[in-house]
Each structure stands twice: as structure tokens, then as C-alpha cells.
């Protein structure tokens, strides 16, 4: 394989990475093994996976720096044993211990001498359940592509086995696939622009910065607000905290229907409620509303892989106490932003996105981020699979995205759908965002207050919150392979329902 | 607490740290809990330790950079939960899984926004045994001080409980203690020298470099050899491999007595044998003998804490096939080197050490390290406690030092004594030193070939090798608290002896 240059966007994730600001994303999946397989399942899985010694693109690519530019090259000494890691939770192996482990591991940089991914198989959850935490550098993959790749690597049936993610053919989505395509992609066009402007800002695509600056100015001019300074917009440390919980998609849909809002808007509204509650408790709620940066995938518009994201900025109306009025204000804002975005040409959308989503762009364009942030927090909604998925017969129960905190953006909320659930992942600097776990309760409260305001409380009681600590029911009414009797997970669900009843 | 400047040596470990070259050391201890305490022991230990929320110096100190100099300051937001980490091995929890975990964790940088230490309590070894892996930045502590601190933090009796390391008073040995002493220490003197020369090489003690250069030249002139280029003297990656095994001190003493060599010389000789075997297998044995850098502690000469180390360079005679002749050549070389070192004034010894042990000094002075390395490998012999030690009643069985690999020094061998054992810890860049585990067999073979050459094989059979995987007997004939019957560890030893008999 020949070396292949990274696009400016992808390169930015390598350039801007520091020990305080790792630039990888991850997915945390929780599985129930087939009934009767017991603790052998993970052992057998590891045995099988350990034999898949060959990685296919992009899982065999490592970054190399040549003449100031980043390239992907094949790792000729690929060592699976380094990337595939069998670990265990200490007893009692609750979600608490799992999140504690993920918090720790997510703060660690990856070895740049190797392909930038690590796959953890985590045993020790109660009832034989296990988890995978798969970490991939953002230079290699964006969140949407990662979620798709995860879904594709799993099976739609409990009877089907697939090779592990790194041994599957992802040619269509990995970054080197572009060379086989006929027309130059959007990233190639941007790359050419960037090259033209490189003298101005060595090592960085300044042509992009110029394009995007005009884009952002336009956006800013069109926006009736500016993000206030907030406790989330500070320099961060190298340690992370991760909190996660699943919520019922049906509940959010019901709220949306009753309030005339999309699920995305409802998601933003309950995040806004949680952020407001958190800042109120810290006595640090700005008088002006927080602004969220919401990545918008352009994958629908192109057939390209890699990082293809634009953004919209959403007024979270955190200054409004009334939850329904807050939701309405959010709907109004996102509608305006979407109209603006859809009128942009695609190239400008991309540039607009690049400068906003990458901290490079952020730092370059905004400059005075600390005192005049363009936005306060990233809230990202990643589409996920609706069907129940299986890993060699083990049923995938829960899916949580783990994302990136950066300087001046100490908190990231990423939400990924799976079946009838939305998995909320809160990734934050452990030092500057205290008591992140409380955000889970605040989020739940945000749903409840909207249900109350809309008179949905009676209906909602039947589809109550499903906390990560007890969530275990399958997304659809499918049974895992060989499941003859109720799994421990199902028992837990039944017990909880009984308590609520 | 006021801020306190780091000495130039200590600062060097912060300056030279990169993602490929972390600068922390660690100790891996393996314990047998008191009989009958079962798996509750680790749980109870974590409960107790989790309450020790306050860290005393140096465990409460974080580094801050001011005007180009590093200082220690107290972490006002000290968060024990970040530093104290309860983890578990996946089943079957062999030494293999333990070393795999340590290899992984040792490659991770620490968060510089916090005190530079992490303490892992590792459950899941067979028979209820557990391990601790305690990682401390070399800027905070040197290996000898660390070993002393570890020993002091444990009890001499199974009935005595002590607070955990970070909650104990280490005033005499931590770096800020110096301010209370009356005469300026050696490091203060060197620091003053360094300040005088700072203009020349900003941020670095160039006065020291000047001093040491003359020292090294003198040493080089006196040495009849120069280190050859070797496979260990290459740029390294950010991933580590750690291999460890214990050997009987009595065996090494017997060899030393028979050959007229010190235990240190015998240690060097068996390392030389292992290195020779490794390089022969890789078809990369230089024709000229490898040179080891052997740190020599100056703690005996001063009452100071911090990093106080000089070095001697030892010809490992790896070009000599005959094991006895090889040992004799090593003895000859170290005797000469020790004579030279003992005739140096203390300040020059220190300077000599600083330039050699710190990669800064190494890089500054040697310059052309890759083609003309001053030495090929670091072999460090750290004195350890002779008495059996206990952690809240759990008996300390094995002690292994985990050290630092740097660019052009891809392998470090550190040996720490405990009771009648020597714990060998091999720390290496995982990429440039392949198949590190084989070094354990080669080391064992190195002992055996000397025993054979010296006609000690019959005697030696009664004190056979004790591999880490099965080593479990207490260093002396003391019983752990409440041990009424044979512990699983003792059973294992008996079984092994029975097999050998």
C-alpha cells in the first residue's frame, strides 16, 4: 500500500492533540451472552478474535509525518495483541465500575507508532454480561462513520457470526478508499484550497480558515445571540469523566408530538434542562442562554467517508425557567439555523463545519474563545441502528458514545440511538466539570418536567426511565440465541417494573 | 504550602517526557491475603484506603511551570478517587494477565494537572492473591527512594496496620523537605551552578553539562572500550512491554563466592548472558561488547532525598562465549570503574550521574547517541528490604521494579531485592524489543550456565529457579496473620518441589 495524505480536517485531529486533549472517540457497548454460555462466552470470543491477526483498512493504518504533512501508511509490524485488550471489572462489577474504567481509559493517548485504535473486551458485569469499549482516533473516523461501522460489524441475527471489526472489509468508508473514486471528493477540493493557503499558516489549511471565517461571520450576523462565558469554557486537564444512561425514544417522541418539536429538539431541550440544573447548583448559570454546537452529518449528501460534518449553533434557552417555553425557544432557533444551513453551498457547509468542529478551526477562527466563546457545549446526535444486533450470538443491549473534550469545551454530550433507546454519553474534563454523574439525574428530570408540562405523566408512567444501571431489555422483542428461559437481564427488568407498579 | 522549584535533575524528567517516552517508574508487588480473608480482603482494603482522602507530601504535589521553570505546588483539589484505582485481571488471572495489564498501564502518561502518581489495586490472581502497581513520576522520586518509601509504608508484622503510602509522613525523603535542612545539599549546589550557566542553554542546567562533560571525557579516556551500535539503541514507540521474574539470591551468592565476584557482578553477568542470547537469536549481536550503564546510589553519602545517582559504565563482555570468562571480564571492568568513581569528588560524581541517567544529559553530552552510544542498556540494582513485609496482614511475596525506556535506550533492566529473592523487571519499548518474555528464560539460562561452569549444579538443584508464575513462598519463615493452615501459595510451592524432587 502506498502512503496517502490525510485531509486537512483529519490532520487537524492529529495536530491539535495534546496530553490534555486526546482526540479519539469511542463506543461503549453492553451485551448479554446467549443463555447457558455463562462466563465462557467472553473467553471463547477472545480466543476467536485473537486469531484474527490481520487488520484491514483503516485498522491497519498508522500516521506518519513527512515534510510537515500527515500520511497514512500500513503498519508492517501490526500486533493484534496490542490493540485487542481483555480486561475485567473489579467486583461487584456494576455500571459504576464500568464507567469508572471507561473514564480512566478514555483519558489515555494512543501510541502513534501504531494504527490508532484499541478494542477492550470487558468481563465481570453481573449475570455474565460483558461490554466492549472500542476507541478510534478521530483522524481515522468520525462519529457517524464509527457508529455505522460498529453496526455493520454486528449481525442482525443471533445465529450469524461475523469477523471482528478490524478484520472486516470497510473499503467503502475508510479514508484510503477515496483514491479509487472517480470525481474528486469534497475533502479533496478543500485540501487543494488548503494547500494554496499553506504558506500563511504552516501546517494548517489556512485557505479553509478563510472560507470558514466568512461562513461563521455570516452565521454570527444572522444569530440574535452570542454564547456567554461559562464554567464549561475553560482550559481542561488530561483526565476524563464519562457518565452514561439510556432513555426511551418513545418518551421523547411523545413529548415531541405533543409540543410540535422534532426528537432532536426535544433532545436539545432535555440537555438544556440538565445543563441549567447543573449550573444552577454550581451557582454559575449565565444570564444569557448557553449555545450548543450541534454537528450535522453531510453523509447523506455525499458518498465520501472520513470526517464530513457541518454544524448548526443552537440557542439552548437556559435562561428560561419554564421548560415548555424553553423547548419552544429551542425549536425556533434550530429551525432558523437549519434554514440557513440548507441554503449554503455544500463546500461552504463543509468549511463552516470544519472550522467549528475541530479545535484547530475553533482556535484559529474564534481566537478569544475564553471570553467570547462561539458556543458553550457540543451536543451531538448520532443516528444508530434500529434493529437488534448480535455479536456472535450475544445480544447488544446498550450503546453509548464516548467523545472528546477540548480546551474551552470541557463537556461533550453525544447521543446515539439504538432500537427504542437513546444512549446519552457525557464526556467531560474530570477536573473542570465536577459531579458529572449528577447530569444523569438532571437529564431524567428534564424529561419529566416536559412530560408534566405537557400533561403526559400518566402515559409516561408505563414507559418509565430506564437507567443504565438496570437497563437490559432488548430493543425489540427478539430473543438471543439459545435463550430458553428469562435471562438475568430480563429478570432485572421485571423486578424493576414490579417495584414501579 | 509555598511553591518550591524542582532541581535541574528532577526538572529534566518533566522536560524530556514525551508521549513516546513517559518518565515514570513503578513498583509491582504481589501479596497473599491472610488465610480465611478470601476475596473480601481487597474489597475491605479499598474501603479503608478510599477514606484516606488527604495526601501528604510528596503525594499532594503537582508540577506547575512558571517563567520556564518547574515548581511543585500543593493540589488544592486533590481527588483520591482519581489516583487510587481498583482493577481486576480477566480470568484465569495468571501472571501473564498481570504482566499484560502492567505493560499496558505503564505506557500511559499521567495527568500533569494532578500529583504525579497512580496506585492500582489489582484483584483476580488465583487463590485470592492480589497485586499493587504504584506508579510515580521520576521527577518526584528516584528508584532507591521509591523502594525505601514502599518498604517503609508496609509493616514488619502481620498484626500491624499502617495508613496507605500517600497518607504517611515521608517528610525526610520528599523533595520539599530540603528547605528545612541547614546546609545546602548537593542538589542545591548543583542548582546554583546550573543557574549560572542557564543563559547558555535556556531551561537546562548547562553548568552541570559542562562539569559532566569533563567527567565523561575522563571516564571515556579511561575506558578501553566504547559501546557498539545495537538493536536497543533506536528510537522508541509509546507502547511498553514488561516482563518479570524472581531468582534466588542464594543462588547468585553461591556463584559469586565460587567465582570471586560480588552479587552485583553476577547480576550483570546473567543479564549479559540474557542480552547475548537475545541478540544472537535476533542475529544482531555486535562484535564489540555491549556496555551497561549501572546507576550507583549516592544516598549513603548524603542525607538528601530526590534523585541522587551517579553511574558506572560496565563492559558486559557479550562478545565472549564462555560464561565464566565473561563474568571475569565483567568483574575486571566494574572494579576499575568503581575505583575511578570513588576517587571523584562527590559533586563531580553527581554531575557525572546526572548527565548519564537523565535523557537530557544523555542527549546533550553524547549527541550522536545513535551511531556512537555511550552505553547500550541500563541495568539498575535497587536494594530492597530483607524482612518479610505485610500490608494490613497480607504478606508481601514478590517485588518487581518497572522502569523507563527512552529513545536510544529501548531496554531497561531493574533488579530489586526482597528477602531471599531478586525481582528482575524488564521494561522495554514494545516495538523495538521483540519477544521480551524470552529474556526471562535467557536469564534463567544465564544462571544455569554459570552454575554448570562452576560445578554448582548439584547444590543448585535444591534452590532451583523460582519463576514469577509460581513463586509464592514467603521470603522468610514467617506466617501471615491468622494463617492456621497452608496457604494456596505454599501449596503451590510444595507441589512444585514435589515435581522437581
Distance between the termini of chain A: 61 Å
Task: Tell me the β content of chain A.
Answer: 15-25%
What is the CATH architecture assignment of the largest domain in chain A? 2-Layer Sandwich
Largest interface (CB < 8 Å)? A-B, 34 and 33 residues
Q: What sort of overall outline of chain A do the alpha carbons produce when their principal axes are compared?
A: globular
Uncertain segments of chain A of ≥5 residues (pLDDT<50)? Answer: 173-224, 302-306, 355-369, 459-501
Mean pLDDT of chain A: 79
CATH class of the largest domain in chain A: Alpha Beta
CATH third-tier fold name of the largest domain in chain A: Chloramphenicol Acetyltransferase
Strand order of the largest sheet of chain A: 5-6-7-2-13-12
Instruction: Count structural domains of chain A.
Output: 2
Major beta sheet of chain A, specifics? 6 strands, mixed
Quaternary state reads homodimer
The secondary-structure class of chain A comes to alpha+beta
Write out the CATH superfamily name of the largest domain in chain A: Nonribosomal peptide synthetase, condensation domain
H-E order of chain A: EHEHEEHEHEEHHHEHHEEHHHEEEEEHHH
Q: Counting H and I runs of at least 4 residues, what is the number of helices of chain A?
A: 15
Give the helix proportion of chain A (percent range).
25-40%
Tally the beta strands of chain A: 15
Amino acid at each position: 500500500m502506498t502512503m496517502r495524505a490525510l485531509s486537512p480536517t483529519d490532520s487537524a485531529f492529529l495536530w491539535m492533540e495534546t496530553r490534555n486533549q486526546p482526540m479519539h472517540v469511542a463506543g461503549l457497548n453492553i451485551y448479554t451472552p446467549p443463555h447457558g454460555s455463562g462466563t465462557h462466552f467472553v473467553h471463547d470470543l477472545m480466543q476467536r478474535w485473537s486469531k484474527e491477526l490481520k487488520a484491514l483498512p483503516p485498522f491497519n493504518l498508522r500516521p506518519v509525518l513527512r515534510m510537515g504533512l500527515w500520511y497514512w501508511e500500513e503498519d508492517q509490524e501490526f500486533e493484534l495483541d496490542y490493540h485487542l485488550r481483555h480486561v475485567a471489572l473489579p467486583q461487584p462489577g456494576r455500571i459504576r465500575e464500568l464507567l469508572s474504567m471507561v473514564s480512566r481509559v478514555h483519558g489515555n493517548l494512543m501510541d502513534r507508532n501504531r494504527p490508532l485504535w484499541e478494542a477492550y473486551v470487558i468481563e465481570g458485569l453481573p449475570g455474565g454480561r460483558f461490554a466492549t469499549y472500542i476507541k478510534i482516533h478521530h483522524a481515522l473516523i468520525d462519529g457517524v462513520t464509527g457508529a455505522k461501522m460498529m453496526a455493520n460489524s454486528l449481525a442482525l441475527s443471533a445465529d450469524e457470526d461475523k469477523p471482528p471489526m478490524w478484520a472486516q472489509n470497510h473499503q467503502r468508508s475508510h479514508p484510503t478508499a477515496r483514491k479509487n473514486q472517480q470525481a474528486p471528493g469534497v475533502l479533496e477540493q478543500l485540501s487543494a484550497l488548503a494547500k494554496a493557503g499553506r504558506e500563511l499558516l504552516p501546517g494548517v489549511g489556512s485557505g479553509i480558515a478563510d472560507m470558514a471565517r466568512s461562513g461563521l461571520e455570516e452565521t454570527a450576523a444572522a444569530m440574535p445571540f452570542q454564547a456567554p462565558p461559562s464554567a464549561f469554557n475553560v482550559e481542561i486537564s488530561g483526565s476524563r469523566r464519562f457518565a452514561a444512561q439510556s432513555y426511551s425514544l418513545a418518551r421523547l417522541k411523545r413529548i415531541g408530538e405533543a409540543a410540535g418539536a422534532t426528537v432532536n429538539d426535544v433532545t436539545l431541550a432535555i440537555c438544556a434542562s440538565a445543563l441549567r440544573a447543573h449550573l444552577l447548583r454550581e451557582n454559575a448559570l449565565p444570564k444569557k442562554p448557553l449555545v450548543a454546537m450541534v454537528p450535522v452529518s453531510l453523509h447523506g449528501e455525499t458518498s465520501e467517508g472520513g470526517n464530513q460534518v457541518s454544524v448548526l449553533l443552537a440557542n439552548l434557552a437556559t435562561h428560561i425557567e419554564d421548560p415548555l417555553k424553553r423547548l419552544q425557544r429551542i425549536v425556533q432557533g434550530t429551525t432558523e439555523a437549519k434554514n440557513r444551513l440548507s441554503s449554503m453551498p455544500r463546500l461552504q457547509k463543509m468549511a463552516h463545519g470544519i472550522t467549528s468542529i475541530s479545535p484547530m478551526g475553533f482556535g484559529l477562527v474564534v481566537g478569544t474563545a475564553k471570553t467570547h466563546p462561539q458556543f458553550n457545549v457540543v451536543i451531538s446526535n448520532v443516528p444508530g441502528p434500529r434493529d437488534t444486533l448480535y455479536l456472535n450470538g450475544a445480544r447488544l443491549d446498550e450503546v453509548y458514545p464516548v467523545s472528546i473534550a477540548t480546551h474551552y469545551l470541557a463537556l461533550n454530550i453525544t447521543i446515539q440511538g439504538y432500537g427504542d433507546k437513546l444512549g446519552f454519553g457525557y464526556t467531560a474534563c474530570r477536573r473542570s466539570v465536577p459531579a458529572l454523574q449528577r447530569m444523569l439525574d438532571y437529564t431524567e428530570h428534564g424529561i419529566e418536567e416536559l412530560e408534566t408540562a405537557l400533561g403526559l405523566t400518566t402515559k409516561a408512567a408505563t414507559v418509565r426511565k430506564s437507567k443504565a444501571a438496570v437497563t437490559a431489555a432488548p430493543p425489540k422483542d427478539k430473543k438471543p440465541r439459545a435463550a430458553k428461559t428469562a435471562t438475568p437481564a430480563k429478570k432485572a427488568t421485571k423486578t424493576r417494573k414490579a417495584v414501579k407498579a
